[in-house]
């Protein structure tokens, strides 16, 4: 049999067809990497010989690193090439997973988890690449899928980690994510073309440092406030420092020739309101993830818990990821027909409806799974609409940095939700076999807070100015139907 070599044109065609699934795989992998450590948290103090407080930094370090690096890497992608920065983020994530697999030292594990936080930039960078590379008729569904990968990966990560932890050494979990990360890096290197859209300028180092310092102070205070005490000197000092640093940073950004974040553009209603909605949607969505697993695993003696294992809990949450995967193209069609602001408003209203169901009945398995599924449905619509609103409101040369800020706002919202839910559960407890456990009213209060925030997000979405053009900013297309602006010569 005669072998026919693949021509360069055929190879380019294959890569073009694989761009969307490869980028989506990277987004799912990012969410899986952030989630897999959760089932390990109760056992890690014993496994690493450290305190529960130290172990909690395995989550905090990833959160802080992701929050700081997402807007910074987004801006770097706009300036130096999105493919290049995307590969760097995937490489750091894979290196962090490998380092976690090689050690049991809590200090090294925390540093490695911080490296994994760089993967948070994968989603905004990928969304920007999709806008640059795909024709307009394919952009909506691809961006919706990319935005939904956060929920899909979170739903897949918990059962995957639970199975590995139950039947293998805990390091095997990180070896698995290392292998998946290497595959994702290789596929992205092979299939993703460097975008011709650039915004050449000198990188705003002072802006990046100021934003990093302000965000670290803010998120550290929010994430550790419950443990350190909201009225304690360290927490109050961090909030004051965050306010002072971000005020100076804001002034510096307004005076910079090439700012890290274009605050004049971001202050306009068409950009500012989607950022506010992202913060609110992040808060509303995250309560579902935080509380559902706790309800399912709560002891039966509590009067409401089902006493499920970690594996069974993960399997109950798995439908949420399937829902987000299936409904992402539907949400894109709704945005095309009625506008992304309508999709965002509908999504937020559905999230609120899901929490009403959770308040009415959270004692039976089927109602818990149904309520969580309704919240996931609304999250799919809301999260798919947010990047579309941003893409239609900013120039081509700022898509990665603007979406990076939008993802950052989601992260801040999730951090605020985590603190609020923890406060609600701590103040509504009862004694059970000598141990304080949350009451059902505490969980219902958390649902009520998240549902109220979802309604505020709905109102915010309706206040966003409608897009005068269904296709957003005018753009030219290249040979692959890709949006182009300031094309560069040669290949990066």
Fold and architecture overview:
There is one protein chain. The protein starts with 7 loop residues before the first helix and ends in an 8-residue tail after the last strand. It is globular, with a radius of gyration of 22 Å. It is mostly helical. The chain has a two-stranded antiparallel ribbon. Strands 3-4 form a two-stranded antiparallel sheet. The chain has helices at 8-35, 44-48, 52-80, 82-102, 106-116, 122-133, 136-167, 171-191, 205-228, 233-255, 263-266, 269-297, 310-338, 340-360, 365-391, 399-426, 440-463, and strands at residues 429-432, 435-438, 476-477, 483-484. The model is unreliable at 469-492 (pLDDT under 50).
Rounded mean pLDDT score? 85
> Low-confidence spans: pLDDT under 50, at least 5 residues?
469-492
Number of strands: 4
Shape: globular
**Order of strands in the sheet with the most strands?**
1-2
The DSSP helix count reads: 17
Q: Helix content range of the residues, please?
A: over 70%
Give helix and strand order, one letter per element, not per position.
HHHHHHHHHHHHHHHHEEHEE
Main beta-sheet annotation: 2 strands, antiparallel
The secondary structure category is mainly alpha
Brief synopsis:
The chain is mainly alpha-helical.
Keywords:
single chain, 492 residues, mainly alpha, two-stranded antiparallel sheet, 17 helices, 2% strand, globular, disordered C terminus
How are the SSEs ordered, and which strands pair?
Blueprint lengths: L7 H28 L8 H5 L3 H29 L1 H21 L3 H11 L5 H12 L2 H32 L3 H21 L13 H24 L4 H23 L7 H4 L2 H29 L12 H29 L1 H21 L4 H27 L7 H28 L2 E4 L2 E4 L1 H24 L12 E2 L5 E2 L8
Helix pairs in contact: 1-6, 1-7, 1-8, 3-4, 3-5, 3-9, 3-16, 4-5, 4-6, 4-8, 6-7, 6-16, 7-13, 7-15, 9-10, 9-16, 12-13, 12-14, 12-15, 12-16, 12-17, 13-14, 13-15, 14-15, 14-17, 15-16, 16-17
């Amino acid at each position: 049999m005669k072998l026919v070599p693949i021509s360069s044109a055929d190879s380019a065609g294959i890569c073009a067809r694989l761009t969307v699934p490869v980028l989506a795989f990277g987004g799912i992998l990012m969410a899986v990497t952030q989630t897999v450590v959760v089932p390990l948290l109760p056992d890690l103090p014993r496994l690493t010989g450290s305190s529960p407080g130290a172990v909690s930094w395995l989550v905090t370090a990833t959160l802080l690193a992701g929050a700081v690096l997402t807007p910074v890497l987004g801006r770097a992608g706009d300036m130096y090439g999105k493919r290049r920065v995307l590969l760097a983020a995937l490489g750091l994530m894979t290196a962090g997973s490998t380092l976690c697999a090689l050690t049991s030292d809590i200090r090294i594990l925390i540093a490695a988890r911080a490296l994994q936080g760089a993967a948070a930039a994968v989603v905004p960078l990928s969304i920007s690449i999709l806008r640059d590379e795909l024709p307009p008729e394919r952009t909506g569904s691809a961006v919706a899928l990319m935005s939904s990968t956060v929920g899909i990966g979170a739903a897949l990560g918990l059962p995957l980690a639970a199975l590995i932890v139950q039947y293998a050494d805990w390091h095997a979990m990180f070896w698995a994510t290392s292998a998946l990360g290497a595959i994702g890096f290789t596929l992205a290197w092979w299939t993703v073309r460097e975008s011709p859209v650039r915004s050449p300028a000198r990188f705003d180092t002072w802006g990046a440092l100021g934003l990093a310092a302000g965000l670290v102070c803010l998120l550290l205070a929010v994430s550790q406030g419950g443990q350190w005490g909201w009225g304690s000197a360290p927490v109050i000092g961090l909030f004051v420092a965050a306010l002072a640093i971000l005020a100076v940073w804001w002034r510096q950004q307004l005076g910079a020739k090439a700012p890290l974040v274009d605050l004049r553009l971001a202050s306009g209603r068409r950009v500012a309101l989607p950022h506010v909605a992202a913060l609110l949607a992040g808060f509303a969505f995250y309560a579902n993830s935080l509380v559902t697993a706790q309800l399912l695993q709560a002891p039966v003696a509590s009067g409401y818990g089902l006493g499920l294992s970690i594996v069974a809990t993960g399997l109950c949450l798995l439908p949420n990821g399937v829902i987000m995967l299936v409904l992402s193209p539907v949400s894109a069609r709704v945005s095309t027909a009625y506008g992304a602001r309508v999709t965002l408003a509908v999504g937020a209203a559905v999230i609120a409806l899901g929490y009403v169901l959770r308040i009415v009945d959270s004692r039976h398995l089927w109602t818990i799974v149904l309520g969580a599924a309704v919240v996931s449905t609304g999250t799919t619509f809301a999260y798919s609409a947010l990047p579309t609103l941003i893409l239609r409101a900013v120039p081509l040369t700022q898509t990665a940095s603007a979406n990076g800020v939008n993802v950052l706002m989601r992260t801040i919202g999730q951090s605020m939700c985590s603190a609020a839910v923890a406060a609600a559960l701590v103040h509504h407890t009862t004694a059970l076999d000598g141990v304080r456990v949350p009451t059902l009213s505490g969980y219902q209060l958390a649902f009520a807070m998240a549902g109220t925030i979802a309604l505020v997000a709905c109102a915010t979405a309706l206040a966003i100015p409608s897009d005068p053009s269904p296709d957003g900013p005018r753009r030219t297309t290249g040979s692959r139907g890709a949006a182009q602006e300031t094309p560069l010569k040669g290949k990066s």
